[in-house]
Design goal:
single chain; alpha+beta; Beta Polymerase, domain 2; 2 domains; 15% strand
Amino acid sequence: MNNEAVMRELCDVHGCHTVVLYGSRARGDHREDSDFDVLGIRADGESVRDARLWQGGFLDAFVYPEAALEVLDPEMDRLAGGIVLCERDGQGTALLARAEALAAEPAKPLKADDRQLRTSWARKMASRIRPLGPEDLEANYRRAWLLHQLLEDYFALRTLPFKGSKLAFQWLAVNEPELYRAYQAALEPGAELAAIDRLVELATRGQT
């Protein structure tokens, strides 16, 4: 699978006249098995998501009619840094410019009650992942849930934009190396509970 093949698939299957590649393959920091994240625009029809294994890779495509993109949802900032694979009347270029403007907007601070809720939730979850036995499924589930949600909550608590785990960890490695190392330790298979406690402590520090 390559960019040309992905473009042709969206044009042929969904009737798209404009295709934009975004995410790690557009930024150039992808791995061999990274998804092809693409957005397609067609003249009309329904908005659809086409996510499937295809040609030895994974295609994750969002297809929109032109009218659906007149007003962009804030989450469309994910297109920032994208590449136009094909376009009609400059629609891809214009869409990327609007996405870049969205991405440049400052993150909105959480309300006080939401800040308190996220902080208390993380600490509560950390206290509830002590398994009652080796097969305590609920404790293991809470452990996975906490490690996943805490990353996004860390950025929200500090009014920083969250743009996915890959970019988040890159940012932490440069700007918060202590927290980055704590995440490394907590995400190790079989990590001690003390490592998770340390992560939660650092991620929620100063937030109450």
